Amino acid sequence: MAEFIKNLKSYVPWNEQEEHDKAVMLHLLETQKDIFMRDNKTAHFSASSWLLNKEHTKVLMIYHNIYHSWSWTGGHADGETNLLEVARREAMEETGVTSIRAVTEDIFSIEILTVDGHVKRGSYVPSHLHLNVTYLLEADEDEVIRIKPDENSGVKWFTLEEALKACSEPWMVEWIYKKLNDKWKARNPE
Known about the structure:
Layout: H1 2-10, H2 16-31, E1 43-53, E2 58-64, E3 69-71, E4 73-76, H3 83-95, E5 100-102, E6 109-115, E7 118-120, E8 123-125, E9 128-139, E10 152-159, H4 160-166, H5 170-187
Parallel strand pairs: 1-9
Antiparallel strand pairs: 1-4, 2-3, 2-10, 5-9, 6-9, 7-8
Helix pairs in contact: 4-5
């Protein structure tokens, strides 16, 4: 966990949202003993990926059954403090793609996400926060993809701009996916 805390402390926020979210995340890391476990019903860490093709022109998204929207891949830390590995594992589980590599091992983005109460595997999950860390990953667009029926009902490659239109969650489009595209474009001007 010390390595993760060091990486989060050295992460340079992209915007005001990330500045605020970083401060909250660091505070919760200091005050919550079970912050990497979903047993913490208030807030816990999760990891997501902006999973690009090798040409970096498309992103692989899933149609998320709980959110009823096209979204990035990701999931709970479940005790793991190497969130890059969590992001990679979740991307593989949710898409069927097996050859996934980190474009960079650095944190690409941070965000605190609200999760409305819902039923998962027959049990009610109360509303809570995901302290989310996003990593930039890449995969071969020609690799076979498949759904994970208990979590998603679609897996599809979108251009970076199509991804914004495919998502039906306005807040995620405006505050997260647009930010990820903008950060990628700033890093890789044409």
